[in-house]
Amino acid sequence: MVESCMRSIFKHRFNLKNTIIMVVTASILSISAAHADDFTQCSQSFYGGVYPEFSNTKLSNNTQALCMDGFAVMYSGVSRTPLWSAEYLDRKRLQQAKQIDREDSFHEESRLPQSMRAKLSDYSGSGYDRGHLAPNGDMANRSQQYDSFSLANIAPQSPRNNRYIWRNIESATRYLTQQYGEVYTVTGVAFTDKKAKQLAGRVLVPSHFFKAVYIPAINQAGVYYAPNDESERIEIISIDELTSKIGIDVLPVLDAKTKAQALDLPLKAGEAIDIPTTEVEEPTWMLFVVAIFEWLMAQLQT
Prior knowledge:
Extracellular Endonuclease, Chain A; 2 domains; signal; Non-specific_endonuclease; DNA/RNA_endonuclease_AS
């Protein structure tokens, strides 16, 4: 009798322990999923529906994924800036964007915890512009435009870089979209200096800005990469080169050849890009038809 009771108690405790473990595990998974904010809600912003991957896992510390209206953001609570913003552009969207005048509405991102947020006061008197990653000029309606002014999409940017170099790059990207029909972009920041400057002791100042551009029509990609200063310097690099510099693979779905080659991107709207051409061999049946035609012409001349 005593032995039976002991077995019953042991079995009850064992089942209770398993139940607690299952509940705790489910809670942890639920919290993790909520923290990730599920990029599937804005998968159209990414080529192939796959978002950028961290090759340097340290960068993923204290990050928050955010689905915005018209674009997606990976925000860092360490730098209090976005690490990148991703967009899908096509002709229809840009045509709609042309119909909307700019309405500045910079604001804190309410979905972020207070401890992670950048504040408007952080930028006040800093000497840096509030630089958009996903630009206002790409936004097709007021809702998208409002989201583009969230500080979750903003990083401290050198005034000359923002107002000249970057404006030209954004215009050139829209031009490529008009030319080829659709473009995927990932715009972001890099922190390559050993010690980054800070705004108000809170917001880190990026050492570089970048914009990766992929054109599906020609299966070519390239990256604009510029120091965040007044020098107006800029270089065009490959996706692979960008990954080695910043620790993020911004377009993980692309094939190895496309990642390794840098498309010669234009620096201004209207400039042609240099696309490598390859000779296309004529199919065998066409060569046969040509041979018959030449034989017939020879018979008529005899």
